[in-house]
Amino acid sequence: MPELTFNAAVPVEPQLTPFSCSVGATFWCLRSLGQDISQAALQSIMVPALVSPELGLLDASGSTIARLLRDRFGLSAMNANPVSFDAVAGRAGTQPMLIGGRRWHADTGHWVAVRGFEGQRLLLANPGGNGPNFGQQSLDRDDFAARGSFSAVFIDTGGVAAVTGRQFRIANTDGQGANLRAEPSVLSQTIRALPEGVTVSGGEHAWRQVTDDSGMRGWMASEFLVAVVGGFKVANTDGHGANLRSAPDTSAQPPIKLVAEGAPLSGDEHAWRQVTDTDGTFGWIANELLLEVQ
Question: Structure pTM?
Answer without folding.
Answer: 0.61
